[in-house]
Amino acid sequence: MAYVAIADRDHEHHLHDPQTFITKYIWSQDHKVIAIQYGITAISVGVLAMILSAMMRLQLAFPDVFSFITPNNYYQFVTMHGMIMVIYLLTALFLGGFGNFLIPLMCGARDMVFPYVNMLSFWVYLLSVIILMASFFVPGGPTGAGWTLYPPQSILPGTPGTDWGILFMLISLAVFIVAFTMGGLNYVTTVLQARCRGMTLMRMPLSVWGIFVATILGLLAFPALLVSAVMMILDKTIGTSFFIPAVLSMGESLDHLGGSPILFQHLFWFFGHPEVYIVALPAFGIISDLISTHARKNIFGYRMMVWAIVAIGALSFVVWAHHMYVSGMNPYFGFFFATTTLIIAIPTAIKVYNWVLTLWQGNIRFTVPMMFAIGFIFTFTHGGLTGLFLGNVTVDLPLSDTYFVVGHFHMVMGVSPVLAVFGAIYHWFPKISGRMFNETLGKWHFWLTFLGTYSIYLPMHYLGILGVPRRYYANGITDFIPESAQTMNVGITIAALLVAVVQIIFFVNIIWSLRNGKKADSNPWGATTLEWQTPDTPPKHGNWGPELPVVYRWAYDYSVPGQSLDFIPQTEPHHGHDSVDDEDKDKK
Amino acid sequence: MSQETNATALPVGVTGVVTDWSGDKQAFHVPWGKAMMWIFLLSDTFIFTSFLTGYMHVRTSTTVPWPNPSEVFALTIAGHHIPLILIAIMTFILITSSGTMALAVNYGYRRDRKKTMLLMLATAAFGAMFVSMQAFEWTKLIVDEGVRPWGNPMGAAQFGACFFMITGFHGLHVSIGVIYLSIVAFKVYRGDYESRGYEIVEIVGLYWHFVDLVWVFIFALFYLW
Lengths: 588, 225
Description:
The complex is a heterodimer.
Chain A: H1 21-26, H2 31-61, H3 71-107, H4 115-134, H5 165-193, H6 206-237, E1 248-249, E2 252-253, H7 261-294, H8 302-315, H9 331-359, H10 368-391, H11 393-399, H12 403-433, H13 439-466, H14 484-516
Antiparallel strand pairs in A: 1-2
Chain B: H1 13-22, H2 32-61, H3 69-72, E1 75-77, E2 80-82, H4 85-109, H5 113-144, H6 157-190, H7 199-224
Antiparallel strand pairs in B: 1-2
């Protein structure tokens, strides 16, 4: 039975039109409002996580000064900082925030395919955040098990938060996964099934490709986390022994017998490694669009960029045990996982080369989003190269659980996605708000953040090679660590506090510009993609006015020779003929 | 039904796949709801796969012998000791319900609302029977045999833990399916889908067949191993 595509039956497709303030801004089913709700919630918890990291840094630099940071508090800060940043900030912001805002606009849809489910997704996400925040106020405080929550320690006495904190954490994660699934199904279905006329998959902007593949990864990876959370809740509450072997706790033998802690690690990292790419792939896509737009040059090797995203996504499911080299495994497994891990370097390197080749001979405009995009190339390359060290079993073993690892993943998974987030917010701010931000403040924000984060994480690699262990409350006096390491710790802390404080510039800029910024044109950057071609800025409910857009070309027609403008929007027909299906002529 | 736009002959086979994926508007010629159900089921597959691999892992790593499922799940009926008889009947019922579901989809596309509704209710009834028998099985294990999630008299503690967790999660899926089927059956009968078409019956059917298929794996890996 031939199914009539939505793009062909525009007039039958009724949107839920908002009536009142509440349906417009609170219980909204509009993808743009949901995106902003996701964004505000995620950034709010992200600020909290940043404050936690500042407390950790204070403790590490000045171990005896702050009496309110006890060892238990410290571990709780470590845990909550990691979990919030990875899941409740980055995953929610990239997929719930940017995914929601960009997918319908860039694909030429009026909204997500199931707006009601999309709305529920946000509210369930908010519920998971509330449960997580509630864990700060339960007896014993939040869990201090480390963001990986490894059993048995995460649920046995001695670790902070084993009474209630760990339960709240696990329940919050399960609720988050429900929320993500509702949103994620929408994003994938929208990309696959609700594009406008002429928008083939190979004409989609790379931002959509990155978010699309990352969402698929999430839909396939979060189930493993859900299952491990369910099993651990059962272990904790009714005394099953999935993860707990025969164990002595506080000098007494527990009732548990025969469980496997390694099982948790496998399940956790089967989720955990794709999670890295759930955060990285949207950043890749966004950076590609930012670089192409602000260098006024088509992205180099578009098809390769797409296939690299797909290849990285697929490979990310067969590398998880590289997080577990120290847990011990058959040497052949170590060989396998080291090999697959290093193979990921190939598509990743393709992407980095292509970004650089896009810049080459481009008409580069040093706008604020472009600065963040170029900064991303530096931090990501840096973090990727140290990843090669850690992907090798024999190199990983001495470096594991040192500050080298902290430096590595904060470069690749902390700073890089955050730079992409800032770049993206500055880039799309005119479309979201209808106003321009302050360029000078934006540049200050970039330089202080970029240089500041570099001076936090670069020295950490050195500390790691010295052998300074991570997750220690206080290092004390040890034979193998020179005293100068503590001096470096102080330096890192000063840089970290500085970076935390300069984020105020960002918030001031955003809030000031919302009221006082210059009115933005509908297409201030001269970009080709569909979201800049909307009839209204910011786009109204339904995005496109009476008629859906029609796409005639790929998303990267910048500086085409012989044209008066240095960009051709995707909606511009080819000269002489206006067939939608006249494909690929422009890509050769 | 407005079928006029895409009614031209579509290429088949590999060419068809390439055409679909390189075309605009949509990759699959199916309604949004059906595409979304497929993707959801793919995600759900990973949940059950994680449960089952987790179960297989603890079964092979535990130090205490695993109870023999054939013995644990045997019933004595009229003096005969029959291994796995209840599970066999449950499996038969669930597979049968897949048959009635397939018929319901067929009658749905023929727009025979009454037969569709009756077949969907029959499917839901089979599902309810399945859950009831599962409740009976749980009661027997808990009350008569002393199996608990944290231990049992027959062997490894993980036996009960895995059993209650996996069959519980599957039973939850069946129960949700029964509710889902009943609601859609009612709406079919009321004529809610006259203008939109009856793909919804097939979407419910996808979910239901998936739940049946998962049971086959649970049956093979938990009861027969």
